[in-house]
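Supplementary Note 3. Input sequence used for the single-chain structure prediction.
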Amino acid sequence: MARGLSLLASSLAVVLTASAFVTSSGVEPAAAQEAPTHHEFQANCSVTHHAADDPIMFPGMPGASHNHTFIGNTTTDAYSTHESLLAGDTSCRAPDDKSAYWFPTLYNGDEIVAPIGPQVVYYKSGVLDYTSVQPFPPGLRLIVGSPMATQEEFRSAPGTVEGFECGDSYHNYDFPENCPAGSQVNIRYQAPSCWDGVNLDSADHQSHLAYPVAGECTASHPVPVPMLEYKIAFPVDGDLSDVRLASGRGYSWHYDFFNAWDPATLEALVTHCINGGLQCDTRGFDQYKPDRGAALDEDHRLPDRA
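The predicted structure, written as discrete structure tokens, is reproduced below.
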């Protein structure tokens, strides 16, 4: 009997040791492996034009703004409205994303430096409960960041990710002095993702949205919406001493968003990718979880609109 108990104890010890080895080696139970690590999709949109227009800050006043670089909707100008954007065309891969995206133009000396190819706009969950995120309401307008920010304000802003990046240089809160040949200057900046549930715009074009607090939306801004993150790449390298934004120094970085998605398409992407805990591309497909399918078809349209 004693010998049997001893063998049982030895067997349990082996099992426990093996279990500890599996845990320490990083192999986790299947349920843990399937836990979502991302909740996002992308809009990829190319540059359409440059203009000293801003239909949010200076509506109906062409030439009143500093110069902006526009991606997405091809018709965006000082007179743009939600209705005019819906009637326009787009440079985004999803043809039913007629939204307007813009940011201050970058100059090297007096020469405009335009981003090349599709630029990435992430739509992510900014709150811990990613299943609660809702689509933007049609016509929502927003300015993220401030052209009047000081360097310290830019550095400490809740939307700042790693500042300006090039090569192996990160956490630059103004343009780096120099970037390696063949590199480019990248900037990522995140938007607030809690909406007040009422206003499509506000007097300062910002206060109708707020950043989450401890991963949750507060009572004043109770509706979680996608967190935008513009990731813009400027093809400039070498000596950056003459590089500037139309709005000023690098820390004056900001951007604008005017929602003109087809509501059903945006809802499908939010539901499938953000609420579904996936790392989606522009058509709502997660290459790491191909069994989950895609929100849109090969033409980036809802299947019933092909």
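The longest helix spans residues 2-24. Residues 1-33 have pLDDT under 50 and may be disordered.
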